[in-house]
Every structure is written in structure tokens, then in C-alpha cells.
Amino acid sequence: MTIEAQGAPERKFCRLGEEISVTDGTVIAGYASLFGRVDQGGDVVEPGAYARSLKELAAAGRRVKMLWQHDPAQPIGVWDEVREDERGLYVKGRILTDVARGREAAALVAAGAIDGLSIGYRTRRATRDDKGRRRLSEVELWEVSLVTFPMLAEARVAAKGEHPGAEALRELAAAFRHARRLLAAT
User: Fold this and answer.
1) Which of 45, 58, 98, 155 has the fewest Cβ atoms within 10 Å of its own Cβ atom?
2) How many distinct structural domains can be found in the chain?
3) Is the pLDDT of residue 60 over 50?
4) Residue 154 has what pLDDT?
């Protein structure tokens, strides 16, 4: 069964472990959504679900918003990079510590008190599988929030120096940045 939707905004929560890191007190990077995982609401995001939305935002010169707990009155930073890869929706941005809530958010993430990311979106296309799960094949992405209670419970946040694998992740991220620079130069 295909579901075409034009309804109210929805949210997907994702607790991220090794997938997210905080560096320099304000830079945050990780996965806001993981493909193929069943969340606590019984939904599964399919690869490619964000592609059209990200292309439309880029064409309009707009960005996905970084919010605190999905509150549109509380922007706390900017996402400098939002893209799909084989794992899911990767985000990298800066928490703005010139904003009071941004200072609080950076401190809470670094301390491990906040350990989740969540997407705010509108479903464009979805189907129901034989187990009754909604499989999201296209969504209109509006925002990625830092949240207390994520929907995808098996992932966790790790602040810089907090998780034993954090150094390896930073090295891997540096290798990817270097590879991107090399590819851009060719």
C-alpha cells in the first residue's frame, strides 16, 4: 500500500553513540537518521528519502535548521553540512555559543546529558510493509534538533574524549575531509 502524505510535521528521534562527536566545544557531527532501522514508532527510513528535499533546499539557498528540542523559537546553531550517504543522514554543524540556549546545549552535549538527534519533516511518500511498518521513501526535511529522548534507542552520543572510540572517529573524519579535498582538487 502506498501512502501519499501532505500532513502535519513529524519527528524522528535518533540516539547516537559513536556516530556523533563534539569538537572545539561547538562543532557537532553525526547521523541524524539511520537507514533501514526500525524506530520505536515502527517506521523505517529508506535510502534516498532525503535526496529530493536536500536538492530543493540547496536550489533555494536555504538550510536545514538546527533547533533545540524541536522548538522553532529556539534555534541553537547551523548545520553546515547535511547529506545522505550509505548509512543515513549525516549532519555537521556548529552550536552557536553566542546564543544562551546554544551555550547550554554545548555544555549538555559535552557532559553527556543530551545524547540524541531528531529530525523534523513531512512525509511525502511512504508504504506499509507486511508487518505494518511505515517505510518512508521520501520526506521533506525541515530541521534536525538536539533532543533528550530520541526514537532510535540503540545509538548514543559521545562527546570528544568521552567515548573510547572517539579518537578513532576523529581520525576517520579527518581522513574523509582529506579525501574530499583531494577529490575537489581533481
Assistant:
1) 98
2) 1
3) yes
4) 43
